[in-house]
Amino acid sequence: MIDEGYIKFNLQWDQTEAFPREHLSALNDWRNQLYALGLLGAYPDGIGFGNISQRIDERQFYISGSTTGNLAQLSAAHYAKVIDFDLDKNFVHCEGPIKASSESMSHAVIYQTCPTVNAVFHVHHAALWKQRLYKVPTTAANIPYGTPAMADEIIRLLKTTTLAEREQFFVMAGHEEGIVAFGKDLAEAGAILLQQYHALISSKK
Q1: What confidence score (pLDDT) does residue 2 get?
Q2: How many Cβ atoms are within 10 Å of 151's Cβ, its own excluded?
Q3: Residue 80 and residue 177: Cα distance in Å, rounded?
Q4: Domains in the chain: ranges and CATH
């Protein structure tokens, strides 16, 4: 059973106006590409899946908003800014016209652990997930998404796997279909993810 879409951390949301469109245009372009491929979207029951983010500074980042997966097109009104987080307190502080994604803590700890990473893509794809499960760095099967345990597990993966081995790509065994790619910028994160995706498509021809 896919457990998706529910915020599992303590969230402080300061509702504000939408952020300037130009700050989000590159992030939104990638969101459009991933949505077109079905890597972001919604299940038949309407529950959305997948989220993408872009670092602003050491602790802040833009991220697609909660419950936006079922929307084909996003505007600036569909993005939040995480302005602080505390893993020990399971706490995320965000601002914007919408609440931050339920996966915000996972994005936050990647940025915290990897200072050179400036973009994170969390997508869903059943076939790619099954193909890469335990063949690339994989979170433990008993750990669900959006929890402090998942954040701790991601930190463990990042600290115990070399850059060459992890290839900036991992799967979540306890989060069915969940896949994460990350990079120094949006282009690199996207290239890493699309390389994996197109390799899967080619293998099925």
Answers
A1: 43
A2: 23
A3: 24
A4: 10-203 (3.40.225.10)
Instruction: Give me the residue label for tokens 């965000």.
Output: 94
Average pLDDT value over all residues in the chain: 91
171 contact partners, CB below 8 Å, separation of at least 6: 129, 132, 133, 136, 137, 138, 139, 178, 179, 180
Give the E-state strand segments of the chain in sequence order. 10-15, 41-42, 48-49, 51-55, 61-64, 79-86, 91-96, 119-124, 138-139, 169-172, 178-183
User: Rg of the Cα trace of the chain?
Assistant: 15
Q: Is the CB of residue 136 less than 8 Å from the CB of residue 166?
A: yes
Are the beta carbons of 145 and 171 closer than 8 angstroms? no
The dihedral through the CA atoms of 157, 127, 73, 10 has a sign that is: negative
Provide the terminal-to-terminal Cα distance of the chain, rounded to the nearest Å. 29
Report the distance separating Cα 18 and Cα 21, nearest Å.
8
Amino acid at 63: I
Encode pLDDT of 5-16 as tens digits: 556 788 999 999
Token code pair at residue 23: 């700050």
List CB contacts of 160: < 8 A, sequence separation 6 or more: none
CA angle 139, 59, 109 (to 5 degrees): 10
**Is the model's pLDDT at 1 over the cut of 50?**
no
pLDDT (tens digit per residue) in 137-159: 999 999 988 788 899 999 999 98
